[in-house]
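Here is my example:
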Amino acid sequence: MAAQVLSRPYDSVNSLPAGTQLDVELSVTILGMNAEINRRQGATTIFVKTTDLSLKKLEYEFSVVEVDQIEQAIAQELGMPVETVRKLISYRILD
């Protein structure tokens, strides 16, 4: 019987093409952020620590190395004011 069920054609109306990016909205409390600015590579990696038990850390990478651009990018990504980002973020510059 399993062979009969598995061999049936199924038309899927709800399909997601490969390579499609999904937008997911999460609600977490952010404890802090650490930014590693790598001027040689022209990129900044942001490590975000949260209070959520199932999602303790987030990591973002941006192709900017100027502090104001980094703050703007992470604020936009996390949906929070730049002023809040400034209160939560610390920087480390790698040369």
Observations:
- Residues 13 and 30 are 38 Å apart (CA to CA).
- The mean pLDDT is 85.
